[in-house]
């Protein structure tokens, strides 16, 4: 069955995201300098809408992100897709086979992906106005779990790195072989920096590489 904790977090982080975005929809998002908050809302709604479709049709081939329906307000669309997606994930079999970016190719992977996507974009929207609250531990830990398969292949040939999240008492190793160094921080600060946002200080080779992850996953 789906994780009630994951679904509750997606719902609450999505609501917080919309709350911040509604403050000033035309404001530019520091993480994406060519995007306004309205653009970020449209992006997140499109990702949520694709997840709804995946839960409904269980596709085995890649599904593109959905487009804003003609005449639809982006904020109304995002509010609708958020609630409909949480319901769709709750009703779907998490072990059902579907297309996904990374293994396991099941609905459960989309549950985790939406937890991370929604939580990180809440951080992005809050950053527009104030010092953002850290990523929730469940979001950050899930993102670090996902990082090896989802993002590490995009970074090129890097030395192995170990990261230690003291607040959740867990560690992760990115790469093969012995790590060149270990970086300790909160799970939030570690994932934020790995996702090209301000956070824990990484080795120089990694600092340069992660700055290339400045575009959202679609």
Q: Mind explaining what this structure looks like?
A:
The structure is a single chain. The chain has 218 residues and is mainly alpha-helical. 49% of the residues lie in helices and 10% in strands. The chain is built from 7 helices and 5 strands, in the order αββααααβββαα. A 3-stranded mixed β-sheet has the order 4-3-5. Strands 1-2 form a two-stranded antiparallel ribbon. The longest helix is centred in the first third of the chain and has 21 residues, at 37-57. It is globular, with a radius of gyration of 17 Å. The protein starts with a helix and ends in an 8-residue tail after the last helix. The mean pLDDT is 96.
Kindly estimate the percentage of residues that lie in beta strands according to DSSP: 5-15%
CATH architecture of the largest domain: Up-down Bundle
Head-to-tail CA distance between termini? 26 Å
Order of helices and strands: HEEHHHHEEEHH
- Radius of gyration, in Å, reads 17 Å
Query: How many distinct beta strands?
Result: 5
Helix content: 40-55%
Counting DSSP H or I runs of 4 or more residues, the number of helices is 7
- What is the overall silhouette? globular
Counting helices, strands and paired strands, the structural category is mainly alpha
Query: What is the CATH T-level topology of the largest domain?
Result: Four Helix Bundle (Hemerythrin (Met), subunit A)
Report the biggest beta sheet as strand number plus sense, adding barrel if it closes: 3 strands, mixed
Q: Summarize model confidence as the mean pLDDT.
A: 96
Count of the domains? 2
In the CATH scheme, the class of the largest domain would be Mainly Alpha
Q: State the low-pLDDT regions, or none.
A: none
Lateral arrangement of strands in the main beta sheet: 4-3-5
């Amino acid at each position: 069955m789906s994780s009630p904790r994951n679904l509750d977090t997606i719902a609450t982080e999505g609501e917080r995201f919309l709350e911040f975005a509604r403050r000033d929809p035309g404001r530019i998002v520091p993480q994406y300098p060519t995007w306004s908050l309205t653009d970020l809302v449209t992006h997140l709604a499109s990702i949520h809408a694709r997840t709804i479709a995946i839960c409904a049709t269980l596709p085995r081939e890649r599904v593109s992100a959905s487009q804003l329906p003609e005449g639809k307000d982006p904020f109304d669309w995002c509010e609708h897709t958020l609630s409909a997606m949480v319901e769709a994930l709750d009703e779907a079999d998490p072990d059902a086979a579907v297309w996904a970016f990374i293994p396991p190719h099941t609905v459960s992977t989309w549950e985790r992906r939406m937890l991370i996507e929604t939580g990180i974009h809440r951080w992005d929207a809050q950053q527009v106005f104030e010092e953002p609250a850290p990523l929730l531990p469940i979001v950050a830990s899930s993102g670090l779990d996902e990082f090896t398969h989802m993002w590490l292949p995009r970074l090129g040939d890097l030395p192995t790195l170990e990261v230690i999240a003291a607040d959740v008492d867990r560690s992760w190793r990115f790469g093969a072989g012995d790590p060149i160094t270990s970086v300790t921080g909160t799970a939030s600060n570690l994932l934020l920096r790995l996702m090209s946002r301000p956070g824990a200080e990484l080795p120089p080779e990694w600092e340069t590489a992660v700055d290339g992850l400045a575009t959202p996953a679609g």
